[in-house]
Amino acid sequence: MPTFTYTARSRTGEKVEGVVEVADRREVLRMIEQQGNVPVFVSEKSIASKQAQSSMPVSVRSRQKRKMKTREVLIFTTELSDLLASGMTLGKALNCLANRKTGGAADRIIAALRDDIIQGSSLSDSLARHPETFPNLYTSMIKAGEAGGAIDEILRRLVDHYERIQETKEKVIMALVYPCIVMLMGFVTMFFSMVYVIPKFKVVFEQLGDTLPLPTQILISSSEWLVKYGWLAVIGIATGLIILGRAIRSGKGKLWWDGAKLRMPLIKGVVASGIYANFARTLRTLLANGVPVLQSLAIVERTVGNDVIARELRKAKDRVTDGTTISGPLSVGKVFPPMMIDMLTIGEETGDIAGSLGHIAKRYESELDRNLKIFTTALEPILIVIVALMVGFVAISILLAVFDLSSGLNV
User: Fold this and answer.
1) Phi, psi of 250, rounded to the nearest 5 degrees
2) What is the spatial distance between Cα 354 and Cα 157, in angstroms, rounded to a whole number?
3) Each residue of 385-407: pLDDT tens digit?
4) For residues 161 and 300, is the Cβ–Cβ distance under 8 A?
């Protein structure tokens, strides 16, 4: 059985040290809490590597951990909020969650949060050590909740916020599933025809020895090239996609691509309404929980997901001077729609910016649903026509050759 050394503090602040033999580190922490002490440091003596890792600074350990998935963060936030609302202390709540082993990154990150809290760190500071998992929006709201003494309520609002964001993402993904399946099946059918079906017809046409129509010649030449050099086409397409992806992820490339998405027919409505809904929902959540306007704009700038909108938010943040009026600075860049600016202005005049942002979020969430329906309704026939043209070209090319050969045989 492994041996652990520990350091704790009693209720009077006295330092308590000891050595115990237990099954694991959780048993040490449970034993210390049962004694009425607060654990400060626990280390396993038998394994030097684990001892070195336990003594490693928390900020260094956190960089070694993988990030939690969005769904895992949502579950963690929901469960932590429920435990705190039931009256459990933060340290015990995190300890309960850390004891639920899932085999993923959540185990290590939650355990690190628990250890930080036990050692006297605040929850917001501990969360800030895991920026890949908990963004600035999350940590800023927790910090505001700590100042107001209502962390469980802030966690519940975070759950509502991320559920709405997740629901919006799922709507977009579900809208793209059917078109992607149609295109995939169309390309698979074309590939099968060009590689396996057309070569068989080619043999038959060559045996008959007649001049083929131009569409049939193009089809057979394309099939021959694909059979011989198709691997080059695959490598070329893959290389092009990699280069394009890297270019889009670069500074200027991403700015261009984000701007193009806001101008593309059909796509621009979906992208813009999603961005505006996310912007209004996030800004409302921050302002309603006491985060200052300038800090809120800085956080939204990093979470909005579009460089064109983010650049305009950065400029608007620089224009904000009194820290309260944001509709004027946002209207200067002509990026945000006039309806949003007008609704923000009304909120500022009535002193209810958070409520106005809530109405804006609902409006653009409804517009997102409408644009998604328009997008899918228009895209389906377009894809069907594209697939029909590809398959139709193959069929017509073969039929033209068959008709010509049949006419020659009758003569």
Assistant:
1) -70, 170
2) 14
3) 888 888 888 888 888 888 877 76
4) no
